[in-house]
Amino acid sequence: MFKEAKGALRLMGHYMKFNLAAMMEYRMSFIIQTLGMVLNNSAFIFFWWILFNTVENIGGYGFEDVMRIWALTSTAFGLSNIFFGNTRFITQIIMTGELDTYLLQPKDPIINLICSKSNLSSWGDAVYGLILISLVEQFAVPKIALFLLLSMTGALLFTAVMITFHSLSFYAGNMEAFAGLMTEFMVTFSIYPEGIFGGALKWVLYTLVPVAFLVYLPRSIIMNFNLARLLLVLLAVTLWIMVAYVSFYRGLKRYESGNLIVNRV
């Protein structure tokens, strides 16, 4: 198992170097898209600032609390799309038969598939979150280090959930719209205070759409470090990764080749 994990990390490293080199071929485009995304996200700060000038708190959250969950969401989402940028195309790859290309290579198919593409503008999301949390926490190094750790667990969780939903295409046909909808749910619920959700919806946010482990618990850990909560987040991420892995590989047994011939460099 250690050998497989080491091989997967090495493959991810190779893809990261390749994707970065490809981005640097169009350096100006990379810089413009990154800065553009940072500016685009920054506009929401003013929206919340104006709102909190009229109310003291929303769902128990103040302005800085909302900025913390925005920072966590933005960086986790950004890292997921930087390192695992092909995840959102899994259904399309299954339905068109392009999955054959990954199955024929002597690498772990799911790692090979999700790491083979990186989203350029997602660097802007990751940078924006880091800048935002640095300002909110007044450049306190321990809190920023915790933020980076929890953003990485958030990226893994986000990716695992998306793999799980896209893997439903092995069983039920084209589930691209459903997976896209669940992605929107993850992002939308993660940028609003936990306190405004109640009843059955709150249960959903701790299970089927695990936003609680993406931003709510991480926010509380950054504010007041709690080892038990950190272990709970790590356990939830590990369980979702296992669910994603099993969903994909069990589904793969039902996959029928599309006999598609594609050249990949």
How many strands, what sense, and barrel or not for the largest sheet? none
Ranges where pLDDT stays below 50 over 5 or more residues in a row are none
Which percent bin holds the helix content? over 70%
Q: How large is the share of residues in beta strands? A: under 5%
Number of helices, counting only DSSP H or I runs of 4 residues or more = 13
Mean pLDDT: 91
Q: Give the overall form.
A: globular
Q: Distance between termini?
A: 28 Å
Structural class: mainly alpha
Give a written overview of the molecule:
This protein is mainly alpha-helical. The protein has 13 helices and no strands. Helix 8 (141-167) runs parallel beside helix 13. The two termini are 28 Å apart. The relative contact order is 0.14.
Distinctive features:
265 residues; mainly alpha
Short description:
The protein has 265 residues and is mainly alpha-helical. The chain has helices at 2-24, 27-52, 63-83, 90-96, 99-103, 109-115, 122-136, 141-167, 169-172, 176-190, 199-205, 211-223, 227-252.
